[in-house]
Amino acid sequence: MPPLQAATICRVQKQNTQTQFKTQPGNTMNKPAANLTLNHPTAADLPRIMQIERAGFTAAEAASEAAMAERIRIINDTFIVARDASGTVIGFIVAAIINERYLHDELFAKSVPNPLHGGYCAILSLAVAPEQRGQGIAGQLLQALIATCRIARRDGITLTCLDALIPFYEKNGFTNEGISASQHAGEQWFNLVQDLPAAEAHG
């Protein structure tokens, strides 16, 4: 699979049953990683994905291996991985489609198939391997997911994050809508939402 060029994710393209995310030149929040490919994970990627998940979250916050395997199988269309030139997964983002504006804790344990169109795309996890951080990979994964939401005419993208990560999401177009009702891992979470314009989401 060819490497990505720098910048704004603009479309998806079917190739050998995988969805390959392509880019066009443009501005990014961070310096983009070179020789990066974004596509959907397979079951074989589970061990590496779990390694990255556990490095990025506390034991209480991290998804279980069973939950992550279910996400790969059931909501693969909103699960995107970043691969280096060798094909190794170095980061990922996974989300589930819900009807509500804010995500609820039950989403972290159980996955159900995504509807084809509409709803809010609730980000469950965004993580990058420790040795690959600082290259803009998280931003590229986030923009790739947002692009798929536009194509699927979603109402918007929603997530919860800790206080320290609010600036990152605000720089990527999200609005802080206050403290979340989530009790996940006993932490205080904040609701961050990016609405898709009606003409863009449903046009």
Notable characteristics:
203 residues; Aminopeptidase; seven-stranded mixed beta sheet; two-stranded antiparallel sheet; 23% helix; disordered N terminus
What is this structure, in a nutshell?
The chain is an alpha+beta fold and 203 residues long. Helix 1 packs across helix 2.
**Uncertain regions: pLDDT < 50 for 5+ in a row?**
1-19, 22-31
Average pLDDT reading:
85
- Structural class given helices, strands, pairing? alpha+beta
User: How big is the Rg?
Assistant: 16 Å
* Helix segment tally: 5
Number of structural units classed as domains: 1
CATH top level? Alpha Beta
The CATH topology corresponds to: Aminopeptidase
Description:
The protein has 203 residues and is of the alpha+beta class. It has one domain (35-195): Aminopeptidase, CATH 3.40.630.30. Helix content is 23%, strand content 29%. The chain has 5 helices and 9 strands. It has helices spanning 46-56, 65-74, 137-151, 166-171, 198-202; strands at residues 8-15, 18-24, 37-39, 79-83, 89-98, 120-128, 156-161, 175-179, 190-195. It has a 7-stranded mixed sheet with strand order 3-4-5-6-7-9-8. Helix 1 packs across helix 2 (65-74). The longest helix has 15 residues, at 137-151.
